[in-house]
Amino acid sequence: MNTITRTALLSVSLAALGATGAMAQEDKTVIAVSIPAATHGWTGGVVYHAEQAEQEIEAAFPDIDIVLKTSPSATAQVSALEDLTASQDIAALVILPFTSEELTGPVEQVKAGGTFITVVDRGLTDPAIQDLYVAGNNIAVGANTAEYLAEQLGGEGEIVVLRGIPTVIDDERIQGFTEVIDGTNIKILDIQYANWNQDEAFTLMQDYLAKYPHIDAVWANDDDMLLGVLEAIEQSGRTEIRYALGGNGMKDVIEMVMANDPVTPVSTPYPPSMIKTAIYMTAAQFHGQAPVRGTVLLDAPLITPENAEQFYFPDSPF
Amino acid sequence: MNTITRTALLSVSLAALGATGAMAQEDKTVIAVSIPAATHGWTGGVVYHAEQAEQEIEAAFPDIDIVLKTSPSATAQVSALEDLTASQDIAALVILPFTSEELTGPVEQVKAGGTFITVVDRGLTDPAIQDLYVAGNNIAVGANTAEYLAEQLGGEGEIVVLRGIPTVIDDERIQGFTEVIDGTNIKILDIQYANWNQDEAFTLMQDYLAKYPHIDAVWANDDDMLLGVLEAIEQSGRTEIRYALGGNGMKDVIEMVMANDPVTPVSTPYPPSMIKTAIYMTAAQFHGQAPVRGTVLLDAPLITPENAEQFYFPDSPF
């Protein structure tokens, strides 16, 4: 073969390759993912799991292209939606809205263009907009923790409880917890807000320790607050507190569970990885026509030493 | 390189390859899928979609091995579970139980061995056994059809309704339908059982036609029964019936929707492909640690000419 022929063939091949490449790109189903930036532990986990889902889904399904955008505020997320839809045809949008109020209108506009809408965690003001809704079960977070605690304490004892930020999420957790405790002889000595903040939880636990000479157990409601609670207990030198439990399945707390920690032997998940569930399900709809329109309510089973590995992500920030 | 060295190297390579092959096989996560055999249209669809899911998931996730078993009876399904668990370690079981009563005990035994349990469509007697439950929404099947019909008829007219086999599924569909119709001026002239059977639906519709000189619309409750209803209407030569609607998203009926049929312009899905959703979600748990424990309630949005393609499987028997 002479050089000219080879070059000509090479050009043809490259042109063919280019055409195939362009076609493949064009044929790909674009799933846009819009989430808050990593402003605190839990959203840090959301970003980590969304990035993992992008890699895994693109490797598994060559017909799917995931486009991921993180936004540091509700206003920025509204702009991100405009950018995402202006530049390309989006088959589906998976969104964890910064706030329900500010994002409902913009998501409704995306929907009007024929895009499949998957909403995660915080609902929109108008649920009719979503095709798929993936949410955690905060009542189960409270109830499953309370059932475990009641069993360990033999249905008796005196406990203190910390609340998060006044929201529906916090109300549901407390409701699930107190409904179970009300059916026992366990007494809740005190219950105050510490805003899902580790430092505020530390201060509040110091107050509780000063006020109550005997405490059998603490429910910190959330793993971030649990770390503050544990610090306060340690500094106090108090040894009668048999259990200090949180919730959310934070990595540091799952490590305690895996190490058979006697004071924190369990956690309950409200996992940031739920973004991954939403992305996998949306991909299943578009890759395999698997029906996913509807509602997913994720349970909050106890995380124990036996199953902790399933909930543990050593590389995740949360 | 001499021949002896090359042969030796080749042997080493093959041995290494063999070891890797065996390890890969051993490392695969086995998801067993147990479903009824294709004894009628809907279960035929279940088998088709489970087979598709097996191919798609195994191609996408090399770490997952799907083992599919179909059973012609509840007793056979119990034996199939014994075989599946006796011969291998099963990480997860996806099951559409033949009957709740007969399968609850056997599935509980599989669960006791540490297997993740995904239940589809018909629940077990004890819901605590399942990790994930995927179900359709029969109330929505009835309600969404009724809302469409009420709007098309302007909230007025006289209709007849067919019921299926006396079951919770049938009760829910009828409840969803009648609750909407009760809020209109539409009168239900008659409502009788035809057992989800095409021939019985044909006979019942002949009775309705003989009994009522004017009928504005028919709700057949199910697409199999709808085919019998349409045959009876055609044979009668009656032309005043403006709508005859079913439910379930059968292929033949979706073809009518796609062809803009004036009498059957919509359907509602209760799709056998929900088995696929369950298999994809279980795979997401084991391939990507995406949390899926909980409940999925699939919606029943109207299938219209605009979206019919998403619900259409030309190669499926259903």
UniProtKB/TrEMBL annotation, chains A, B:
UniProtKB keywords: Signal
GO molecular function: carbohydrate binding
Gene3D superfamilies tied to this protein: 3.40.50.2300
Domain Periplasmic binding protein: 31-289
A Pfam family matched in the record: Peripla_BP_4
Signal peptide: 1-24
Record's keyword annotation contains ATP-binding: no
Gene Ontology annotations for the cellular component aspect, listed alphabetically: cell envelope
Keyword Signal: yes
Compartments, record wording: Cell envelope
Source taxon at top rank: Bacteria
Recorded family membership: Belongs to the bacterial solute-binding protein 2 family.
Protein name, entry field: Substrate-binding domain-containing protein
Record organism: Rubellimicrobium rubrum
